[in-house]
Amino acid sequence: MKSSPQPADTSTANPTNEKDAHISGQLLEMGHADAAVALQQLASRFDGLTQAEAGARLKQYGLNVIAREQRLSALMRLLSNVKNPLVLLLIALGVLSFMTGDLRATVVIFVMVILGTVLRFVQEMRADNAAAKLEAMVSNTATLVRDGKEKEVPLKMLVPGDIIRLAAGDMTPADVRVLSAKDLFLNQAALTGESLPVEKKADVAPADVHNPLELANICFLGTNVESGAATAVVICTGKQTYLGSLAASIVGQRQLTSFDKGINKFTWLMILFIAVMVPTVFLLNGLSKHNWTEAFLFAMAVAVGLTPEMLPMIVTVNLSKGALAMARKKVIVKRLNAIQNFGAMDVLCTDKTGTITQGKIVLEKHLDVNGEDSEKVLHFGYLNSFHHTGLKNLLDEAILKHEELEQHLQVQEKYRKIDEIPFDFVRRRMSVVVEDESGLNTLICKGAVEEVLSLCTRVELNGEVIAVQAEHDTRRRQLADELNGQGFRVIALAYKQMQGASDEPVYAVKDESDLILLGFLAFLDPPKDTAAEALKRLHRLNVDVKILTGDNEIVTSYICKEVGMPVENLLLGSQIEAMSDDELAVAVAASSVFARLAPAHKERIIRALQSKDHVVGFMGDGINDAPALKAADVGISVDSAVDIAKESSDIILLENNLLILEQGVLEGRRVFGNIIKYIKMAASSSFGNMLSVVGASVFLPFLPMLPIQVLINNLLYDFSQTTIPTDEVDADWLTKPRKWAIGEIERFILFFGPISSIFDYLTFFIMLYLFNSWQNPALFHTGWFVESIFTQTLIIHIIRTNRIPFIESRASWQLIATSLIIVAVGALLTVSPLADTLGFVALPPLYWLLLAIMLLCYMILTQLVKTWFIRKFGE
To answer: What is the DSSP string of 804-819?
Structure first.
């Protein structure tokens, strides 16, 4: 995950705005300038600023702090949930109902609004509080020179022009220009993702370097010193730093995700239905019945009937259920909508380091001079790293991970350290001399391949020491080059043995001569054990995985091949720089691996994929990943990520394991499957009912149904849907990404809505001509009410699955129970003490027999149409 940007060569990392361009330009100017010139431009000097100068600059530039994304207050979070378009529509209808005196409709609507928003509010607050709290981005103090004296100053008080001291273990407190350095190596993993430290020097940067991150004399806020020491001058602080500009770019309003856009489109679809149907019903009934007040109340009831009041609740309960399921898998869902976006995701862009790889340096190979595995090479390498007392680097730590060798070799019992020749950056090697039980002194030297090989006059081959031969020496150098070409960091290991002196011997650099080449140690940030399997599982779920890394293309290609991921049309940051957005949108479709990327490149790739209607997830944990995390439809990070990455993400994994993503994808598809069930059922049922209402309004001398009956019918139906979140989703429905497709929903409504109308009109015929209800409106109302509640409630079990209901796919027991309860309540209302109040009368026994026949025919016809519909349209 902490992908290393080592960005492209051609521009300033594609700054996203004028501020970014200014910051990059300033850093480049300082990097290309001599140290003395840089000090002059910053109006500073080697003995530092005075306290008065620092105070004036603090007022001018402000505190050395970066922008942070502010958490929403409880009130603002509640208001943001209320701003949902569907909630606003329901509130508007509720207000209209209240103004017309229809208090029962008002109560029904506002109960739905309150339940939906409160449930969502509570779950989001819990998720927000569960997320790891922000940690300090920088250390508390910095060592600087003020008034000619070194002193510790609170980090936030640093100003441009300050002279600071850096030493091993320090975090770089601002963007600085190195003035002098000794063996200075910085870990830039949080900013660039490079696994190994990079060297920083005071030398003027070459003129052909056009990317700030490639300047060897610039140190950035957010990096830390691995070794060495330096004196540097502060160029910029706080929001003006490279990190500060990245942080500022992710703070603010997030763009609407795929889920948000889908909900909004569906809401506007329903508003369109209401805008067409309600005036039509009002005019038809007003003109035919000449009672405009009654017609208006009925039209209002129709508007409420068309509105899927339960959608906010269904959505929230489904998302909350998904969030709880993910929490049990050690995943924190910060934003509920991310659950559905997880399921809709068809492209996952992920960093390499820490996601595909382990995010740490591991000793992968210990080879003899022929390239064969050698235990002796490992043993000698362990003795060297164990006994040297200098700063142990990442390579030493990787060797010492073989803790079993301490006991196996009896390192402290059988070997005594005699002397050490420390590492320096000129020799690029270090040596340790140990004495064994026989008194034999062994000098073990490890270091850069060329440096060590140049000291070797002999080699050990199959236990025999022979003189170096030119052709064999060439082959050994080729072996090292091949390992480097595969992405390995290679060091050579050599030794020589001497009889110990009677007094304590002293060894020096001159003793590193006439060495015996033993072999090579090869290090790598290796793939995770689970990476290959996780990629296969995501592929089976039709999620296309793309690697976006700042690391170089050689290492990236090797790792991708190791996990079985084809490297096709690899794109570099420098190539992306030269592309327009349209060209990039075409290029990203054909590429699966992107290397040497800057933060802005990652964000551009995300947006290019989104422009082609992909739902994109991004997984990363570095500072450089923050813009891409925020741009993605679902941003995924880990608990160990830097704060900005966690703030920018929607989902935080408490375990850095790609296999968890598979479960997240499946959970997201289950959630969306249940949401879409409700939408299809509610919308098609409402559409069918409105077709029936319009037709009945034309030829009936009375209202097709009383307003209160419409509301009760709608309330009962909505209640039957509350258990949809408990329902299972067919396994074959989970095999591919699912996203909002309003066109598909409209098509579904147009095909299935009229089916219910067929049986509504059949009911009209039975009630009017078989039971002669022309003169008995109450009987007509009751007959249609019961048929309507039975058909739209029971038809849930046909529509909820693409399979044969009850046989191949059965609903959850909760959904079955609520369906039966609701139809029972609907039937009992017609004979209950409330019947008169609600305008119901008892139905003749023959009606119930005819209703059973109609239900059977309705379910058979719907199943046949559904089967044809799936074959024709695939859904």
So the answer is: -BTTTB---HHHHHHH
Longest CA pairwise span in the chain (Å): 127
- As a whole number of angstroms, the distance between CA 259 and CA 623 comes to 26
Q: Give the pairing type, strands 515-524 and 489-499.
A: antiparallel
Per the CB < 8 A criterion, the answer to whether 183 and 226 are in contact is no
Q: What band does 5 get if pLDDT is binned at 50, 70 and 90?
A: very low
Of the candidates 20, 102, 183, 351, the residue annotated as catalytic is 351
3-class secondary-structure state, position 528: coil
End-to-end CA distance of the chain: 37
Plot region of 637 (φ>0 → left; ψ -120 to 50 → alpha; else → beta): beta
Q: Which residues contact 619 (CB under 8 A, 6 or more apart)?
A: 1, 348, 349, 350, 351, 355, 636, 637, 661
Task: Report pLDDT for 463.
Answer: 86
The strand pair at 175-187 and 163-167 is best described as unpaired
Distance CA 7, CA 573 (A): 6
- What whole-number distance in Å separates Cα of residue 9 and Cα of residue 577? 9
Residues 829 and 842: their CA atoms lie apart, in Å, by: 10
Q: Which helix (H) or strand (E) holds 873?
A: helix 845-873
Q: What is the pLDDT of residues 804-859, one digit of tens each?
A: 888 889 999 999 999 999 999 999 999 999 899 889 999 999 999 999 999 999 99
Residue with tokens 């007094």: 503
Q: Using alpha carbons, select from 609, 594, 606, 601 the residue that is nearest to residue 579.
A: 601
With 60 as the cut, is the pLDDT of residue 608 above it? yes
Spatial distance between the Cα atoms of 553 and 571, rounded to a whole number of angstroms? 9
User: What is the phi/psi pair of residue 144, to 5°?
Assistant: -140, 175
Give the span between the Cα atoms of 548 and 545, in whole angstroms: 10
Rounded to whole angstroms, the Cα distance separating 674 from 556 reads 40
253, burial (CB in 10 Å: exposed 0-12, middle 13-18, buried 19+): exposed
Answer yes or no: are the C-beta atoms of 88 and 79 closer than 8 Å: no
Q: Whole-angstrom Cα distance, residue 174 to residue 351?
A: 26
Contact between 678 and 724 (Cβ < 8 Å): yes
- CA dist 786 and 716 (Å) reads 11
Name residue, tokens 């709290």: 133
Q: Cβ atoms within 10 A of the Cβ of 507, count?
A: 17
Q: Which of 220, 182, 175, 225 is nearest to 201 (CA)?
A: 182
Structure tokens at 224: 């830390």
d(CA 825, CA 806): 23
Assess whether pLDDT exceeds 60 at residue 3.
Answer: no
Given 3-state DSSP classes, what are the helix, strand and coil percentages for the chain, each rounded to the nearest 5?
50, 15, 30
**Cα distances (Å, whole numbers) of residue 407 to 379, 382, 402:** 12, 12, 10
Tokens standing for 753?
């809505």
Q: Which two tokens stand for residue 342?
A: 């997880």
Q: How far apart are CA 92 and CA 105, in angstroms?
A: 12
pLDDT at 548: 92
Distances (CA, A) of 671 to 54, 79, 306, 313, 797: 56, 24, 23, 13, 18
**pLDDT of 678-693, one tens digit each?**
888 888 887 888 788 8
Structure letter (DSSP) for residue 233: E
The pTM of this model reads 0.69
Residues 177, 233: contact at Cβ < 8 Å?
Answer: yes
Which helix (H) or strand (E) segment holds residue 178: the answer is strand 175-187
Is 718 known to be catalytic?
no
Neighbours of 866 (CB within 10 A): 22
Q: What is the pLDDT of residue 294?
A: 75
pLDDT value at 20 more than 70: no
